[in-house]
Each structure stands twice: as C-alpha cells, then as structure tokens.
Amino acid sequence: MKPIIAPSILAADFANLQAQIEMLNQSSADWIHCDIMDGRFVPNISFGLPVLEAVHKHARKPLDVHLMIMEPQLYIEQFKKAGASNITVHYEACTHLHRVIEQIKAVDCKAGVALNPHTPVALLTDIIQDIDVVCVMSVNPGFGGQKFIQHTYAKVAELRQLIDSRNAHALIEIDGGVNEETGPLLLAQGADVLVAGSFVFQATDPPQTIQNLKNLHS
C-alpha cells in the first residue's frame, strides 16, 4: 500500500495560495493538511475559517483539518461548513474526548485525535475503535520546520500494535519532520499518512517531492 500524502499548507506561500492549491490539485497528494492554531493551545496563530473556506473553493482533494485549538467542540460544525473532510482534535485539548469524536462524526467528517510528543499512546486504549485517524506529533506543535523527535518511531510501533490488537481501523498519521529519510522508517513502523510542510513547499520541485514521498515504502 502506498502511503497517503498530506502536504501541509502552513508552509505554503500565502500570497499565492490559489496557485499553491492548484499545484496540489495536480500533484499526487491525497489530502491537503490545514493547521488551525489559536495562539492559546499552541504558541502561534496560523489561519481560521475564512482562509479554510477560500482553500476549499479551489481544492479538489479532501481537506485534512488539524485543530490545534482550545475548546474545539465549539467549532466543529463551522469547520465542516468551511470544507473540512477530516477533523482532528488534540487529546490534550478535550476533557470529553469521546463526545467530541461523536460530534465530528455527526457532521459526517472523519474523526481524528492528535497526540503531542509527551502524550502516551496508551491513553487511547478505551477509544481507539471510535477514531478514524490518530495524528502522532513528531515535533512540538505550533511551528513548521522543526527537528524530528526520534522517539516517534517507537510510538508509532506501539500505536500500530494497539490498533491491530483491537481490530480498529484508525489510520496512523505523522505530522512534523517528515522527509525522504524519516518517511520509510515511519512506514516500517506502521504509519499510513505522511504530513509534510516545509519539505514540500521549500523544495525546488514540489510536485516531484510529493511524488517521491508517495513512492516511499518501508
């Protein structure tokens, strides 16, 4: 199985966002990863609903919306209306995680849960069968272009074991520091989805870089 590739537009040129989305449309990317940051859950602010709506107008690939925000349960319906296909919330931001997952499914989106680098996989044991995507943060969330955290490989292996042992169907998504070196090692541990931001958008040939990621195997 080829990996699902989800370029993160956090690293795109926002002055030419339509052109960047058109490039992704024509590339072998599978999803378009959209990082929403509120300056509270993470120490950075990215973009919100109006930009997501604008992206959705031009995108021909599913929008994989990653909510790095406090109280995501207040905005699920709005992000669906803005064009989200997948909505991922952070374990650390949800006191009532199961309820938020149900909320996401109720608006007919795939439900994702993201784990910060310090958050153990075992905390998902009781809920893994309800999740469509688990997003493992391989950098501390908030900024692009950070160094990959090596412990991620073991974490992915542990998560793969949990999913398989429960006959769950969750996809394992990796966000942060993904490139042609880390990618195959992550796939070898059981990853399904690779998010890449600066590695794609700062490349001399982004479509070819996306294709190279698509061609990776463990």
Keywords:
single chain; 218 residues; alpha/beta; Ribul_P_3_epim
Report on this model:
This protein has helices at 17-26, 49-58, 76-81, 97-106, 152-165, 182-189, 198-201, 206-214; strands at residues 4-7, 32-37, 63-68, 84-90, 110-115, 133-137, 171-175, 193-196. The protein has 218 residues and is of the alpha/beta class. It has a single domain (4-214), classed as Aldolase class I (TIM Barrel, Alpha-Beta Barrel), CATH 3.20.20.70. Strands 1-8-7-6-5-4-3-2 form an eight-stranded parallel sheet. Helix 4 links the parallel strand 4 and strand 5. A divalent metal cation binds at residues 33, 35, 66, 175.
> Can you name the CATH architecture?
Alpha-Beta Barrel
CATH class, named: Alpha Beta
Low-pLDDT runs of 5+ residues are none
Radius of gyration: 16 Å
Count of discrete structural domains:
1
The proportion of residues forming helix, as a percent range, comes to: 25-40%
What's the order of the H and E elements?
A: EHEHEHEHEEHEHEHH
Largest sheet composition? 8 strands, parallel
The coarse overall form would be globular
The CATH topology, please?
TIM Barrel
Instruction: Name the beta content range.
Output: 15-25%
- Please give the order of strands in the largest beta sheet: 1-8-7-6-5-4-3-2
Q: What would you call the structural class? A: alpha/beta
User: Going by CATH, what is the homologous superfamily?
Assistant: Aldolase class I
End-to-end Cα distance, whole Å, is 10 Å
What's a concise summary of this model?
The protein contains 8 helices and 8 strands.
